[in-house]
Design brief:
four-stranded mixed β-sheet; 16 helices; seven-stranded parallel β-sheet; Dihydrodipicolinate Reductase, domain 2; Rossmann fold; single chain; binds nicotinamide-adenine-dinucleotide
Length: about 450
């Protein structure tokens, strides 16, 4: 791909960010945007708000902020909406989630209270540990999709938005493998009309968003838009989509460390990861079927980064175990332990222990914001289908069937920044500097 300037529509008017699932992650993000707008806090962890991008040669010293380089919506021009099976407004939900200080929430209370969830499309078959009163009823899944599409149109009109994006922040659904119903637009639509059990709620939201021409990101590991039918529909409707599963916590650390081991040709015998967490997400993941979806998402990372078939002596037979344990006293403050058995010169073994006392939603919130802003940019740039340049944000990046997913955080960042450079007709940076050759 060579540099070429494409026409990017300006970020005029208001952007509506729609959030199916207004729990810990979603409300932490919404509260953060309100706090930043009021000058109460800084958007730490957000590449779109704090990141820079180098242009040209290092000697040019031209390093603008990303938000000045590409036309992103201003944080003051965002409105929030969403759906949840509980009736709590964003203030109440954030208080219950217990991620942010009450003092901070108090200062943004009116704005937070104004964000109220619409009635959700929900079926307990797919999230067995939850049940709530704020749910739609309808004659079949297509009817539910139609109701969501109406919600979307009403929200856009009522709030005077010029554009919308949707980021799934709902619970992790049970493990579902792609089947026939997921293969084509026709089979999916037939399945929606006939209530096919292989179509979970998140897929109905994704279908509704794409049909309405709204960019869609999936922050959970369940399939949602990652099926051939919805990829095809996104292409047809000119809608950018991406997923799956926000890259936070332990997997973030894994995709920082593993590329380093590989870069230095250090071998790996095993990587044992365990987590304790006590929030609602932890409770949902306590169900083995929801955990299986998460486990699949977390496990594939090392295989793809370390390439055992290319480096059989280093990574041919490592053992990789991931555990999540629900432990209520911890709330949203997860503890992720990693025991890493590596080996060096002549096969001598060494160990690394990582104990990450992290805050899950604090790590996830800036990802939701960045994805919303960058998907909006992608839409205005005319991008459609799977946005692999946004793999940076995901544990299990959605990718074209013909290629493997890129998990290395540093390659992902380079790809993201080069895509931004390409959008603005700037030279792509390959880090090849042959000053010493001439
Ligand atoms: N926090 C992180 O670091 C992180 C990282 C990666 C992925 N995720 C995923 O993000 C999602 C949100 O995490 P969280 O910590 O906010 O969880 P949470 O349990 O606090 O919030 C999820 C919300 O989704 C709602 N919900 C479930 N099904 C719904 C539906 N069909 N329609 C509307 N609402 C629905 C629930 O009622 C709940 O309020 C989870 O799937 C989680 O696995 C989180």
């Amino acid at each position: 791909m060579s540099s070429s300037s494409v026409e990017i529509k300006p970020a005029q008017g208001k952007l509506g960010i729609l959030l199916p699932g207004m729990g810990a992650v979603a409300t932490t993000m919404v509260a953060g945007v309100f706090a930043v707008r009021k000058g109460l806090s800084k958007p730490i962890g957000s590449l779109t708000q704090m990141g820079t991008i180098r242009l040209g040669k290092r000697t040019d010293k031209n390093v603008p902020a990303i938000k000045d380089f590409v036309p992103l919506v201003d944080l003051n021009n965002i409105v929030f909406g969403g759906w949840d099976i509980f009736e709590d407004n964003a203030y109440q939900a954030a208080m219950k989630a217990g991620v942010l200080d009450k003092d901070l929430l108090q200062q943004i209370k009116p704005e937070m209270e104004a964000v109220r969830p619409m009635k959700a499309v929900f079926d307990q078959k797919y999230v067995r540990r939850l049940s709530g009163p704020n749910v739609k009823t309808g004659k079949n899944k297509m009817d539910m999709a139609d109701q969501l599409r109406q919600d979307i149109r009403d929200f856009k009109k009522t709030n005077g938005c010029s554009r919308l994006v949707m980021v799934w922040c709902g619970s992790t659904e049970v493990f579902i493998k792609p089947t026939d119903v997921h293969q084509t637009i026709e089979s999916l639509e037939k399945g929606l009309r006939e209530n096919d059990p292989n179509i979970p709620s998140s897929m109905i939201y994704a279908y509704a968003a794409i049909m309405e021409g709204i960019p869609y990101a999936n922050g959970a590991p369940n399939l949602s838009a990652d099926i051939p039918a919805l990829v095809e529909l996104a292409g047809k409707q000119n809608v950018p989509i991406c997923g799956k599963d926000f890259k936070t916590g332990q997997t973030l650390i894994k995709t920082i460390l593993a590329p380093g081991f590989k870069a230095r040709m250090i071998g790996l015998n095993g990587w044992y990861s365990t987590n304790i967490l006590g929030n609602r997400d932890g409770e949902v993941l306590d169900d083995p079927e929801s955990f299986k979806t998460k486990e699949e998402s977390k496990l594939s990372v090392l295989e793809h980064i370390l390439q055992p078939t290319v480096y059989p002596d280093l990574y041919g037979k490592f053992s990789h175990v991931v555990r999540i344990n629900y432990y209520p006293p911890r709330g949203d403050n997860k503890e992720g332990w990693d025991n890493i058995d590596i080996f060096g010169w002549l096969g001598y073994p060494m160990q690394i222990k990582v104990d990450f006392l992290c805050r899950d939603s604090i790590l996830a919130a800036p990802i939701v914001l960045d994805l919303a802003l960058l998907l909006d940019l992608a839409g205005r740039t005319g991008f459609r289908g799977i946005q692999e340049w946004l793999s940076f944000y995901f544990k299990s990046p959605q990718h074209a069937a013909s290629v493997y997913p890129e998990h290395d955080l540093f390659i992902q960042l380079m790809k993201l920044k080069n895509t931004l450079r390409w959008m603005r007709g700037e030279e792509l940076i390959t880090h090849l500097g042959l000053e010493y050759y001439d």
